[in-house]
């Protein structure tokens, strides 16, 4: 019997904090961090660090790096900081929130010159999130100082 194309190895995300192998957990599993179903997550139970997977991903490709409590908090702060820009972009370009958010992230990552493969919030480290939040604040302040903002 002939063997077809080799099947690509499924991803094995590592924990940034301890270097251990993350495990895939689903709702109801002992390691699963939520009560409700938020889709499968890759989790490092000892570090309580986790990340979700891409929607409809056959191999459960992780969305980014595993995030511990501090990074999750920082990502949520960055998300909040970004939302006014996203709303402005939706109004100006007439695009939906998903597209506007994608564009805003691309702009942000390019502006900061961050060495990340994919322009999503989940690719960022704690330091990079802090840098991004700071950058947005400065950007907003600079815009606010202009007499006419069109
Ligand atoms: Zn770990």
Task: Walk me through what this model shows.
This protein has 150 residues and is mainly α. The protein has two domains: 1-66, no CATH class; 69-145, no CATH class. It is 41% helix and 7% strand. It has three helices and three strands, in the order βββααα. A hairpin with a 4-residue loop joins strand 2 and strand 3 (49-52). Helix 1 (69-93) runs parallel beside helix 3. The structure holds zinc ion (ZN). The site of zinc ion has 8 residues, from loops. Zinc ion is lined by residues 15, 17-18, 20, 44, 46-47, 49.
Give the gist of this structure.
The chain is mainly α and 150 residues long.
Structural Rg: 18 Å
Shape: globular
Helix content: 40-55%
Number of domains: 2
Overall structural class, as computed from helix and strand content, comes to mainly alpha
For the residues shown, what is the average pLDDT? 90
User: Based on the structure, what is the oligomeric state of the protein chains?
Assistant: single chain
Order of helices and strands: EEEHHH
Looking at this protein, list some descriptive labels.
150 residues, mainly alpha, 2 domains, three-stranded antiparallel β-sheet, 3 helices, binds zinc ion
Secondary structure blueprint with pairings:
Elements: E1 23-25, E2 41-44, E3 49-52, H1 69-93, H2 97-112, H3 126-145
Antiparallel strand pairs: 1-2, 2-3
Helix pairs in contact: 1-2, 1-3
């Amino acid at each position: 019997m002939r063997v077809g194309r080799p099947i690509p190895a499924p991803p094995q995300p590592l924990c940034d904090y301890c270097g251990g192998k993350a495990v895939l957990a689903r709702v109801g599993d002992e390691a699963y961090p939520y009560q409700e179903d938020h889709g499968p997550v890759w989790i490092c139970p000892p570090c309580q660090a986790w990340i979700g997977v891409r929607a409809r991903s056959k191999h459960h490709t992780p969305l980014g790096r595993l995030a511990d409590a501090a990074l999750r908090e920082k990502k949520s702060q960055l998300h909040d900081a970004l939302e006014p820009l996203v709303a402005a972009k939706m109004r100006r370009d007439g695009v939906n929130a998903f597209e506007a958010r994608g564009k805003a992230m691309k702009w942000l990552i390019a502006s900061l010159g961050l060495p990340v493969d994919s322009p999503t919030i989940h690719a960022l480290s704690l330091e990079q999130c802090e840098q991004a939040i700071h950058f947005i604040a400065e950007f907003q302040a600079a815009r606010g100082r202009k007499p006419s903002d069109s």
